[in-house]
Specification:
alpha+beta, 8-stranded mixed β-sheet, about 30% strand
Length: about 240
């Protein structure tokens, strides 16, 4: 059978395109890649793992371990074509747009999980604890399996911020304008949290205190930042003199 030169050229181009469909841009730095799926695990009153997992459009995955996990710092790995296709199909079939953005139970100390899907030009975020729909929790399980899999490479070790100037038991909190602050304080009472001083006229910036014998400063900051009422939070620090 005779195939002319143009036909061979067309076939070669098609094969090249097919082989490049996956993975795409494998060697591009992660901060330049488009995100497809994210999962962020929050802190609890205990030893819950705190980390972020991101699956990028080329099948690369990053794991940012912050606390209570065997992988601290930023790690990366590459999903196989089969693994990437499977998790992408699961998210597409889940139709996450049908669900609410937030699901909270009446149990105050449960860790929250936030899942984000950046599919088909739109982003959908779902955050909550055990009150989330079963279909969403099943997606979380699939992502946890990836997080707990082998083959990770350390990219950047965890860098602990200097702690010597932190005022123990004090955090500065900026609330969202619509936040029910008294209710928020009630939900955090397990940590001995109290409002100590209002720090602006609008009433949304407060210095709060908590019991360091019940929770560490790092865990408390993660826990506060993870609540829907809080916009920003940071340790109160001693002023350094020159």
């Amino acid at each position: 059978m005779h195939i002319n030169r143009n036909a061979w050229l067309s076939l070669a181009i098609l094969l090249l395109l097919a082989s490049s469909c996956y993975p795409r841009k494998r060697n591009v730095p992660m901060d330049q890649l488009g995100k497809l799926i994210e999962m962020h695990k929050g802190a609890c009153f205990g030893t819950c793992p705190v980390y972020g997992l991101v699956i990028y459009e080329n099948g690369k995955v990053s794991f940012d371990g912050r606390m209570n996990t065997d992988k601290l710092g930023v790690h990366s790995k590459q999903l196989s074509k089969k693994e990437f296709k499977s998790i992408q199909e699961r998210f597409e079939q889940a139709n996450l747009s049908q669900y609410e953005d937030n699901y909270r139970s009446d149990i105050h100390d449960l860790p929250s999980t936030k899942i984000v899907y950046h599919g088909k030009g739109k982003s959908k975020s779902i955050k909550g604890d055990v009150a989330r729909p079963d279909a969403v929790k099943e997606l979380e399980k699939q992502l946890q399996d990836i997080a707990q899999s082998d083959g990770w490479t350390l990219v950047e070790p965890l860098k602990d911020a200097p702690q010597d100037n932190i005022v123990a038991g004090e955090i500065i909190v900026e609330f969202h304008p619509s936040a029910d602050i008294p209710d928020w304080v009630h939900k955090m009472e397990a940590y001995g949290l109290q409002l100590k001083r209002q720090m602006n006229k609008k009433g949304n910036l407060w210095l709060v205190t908590y019991d360091t014998s019940k929770i560490s400063p790092a865990d408390m900051l993660f826990k506060i930042k993870d609540t829907k009422e809080v916009y920003l939070a940071e340790h109160n620090r001693k002023v350094r003199t020159r």
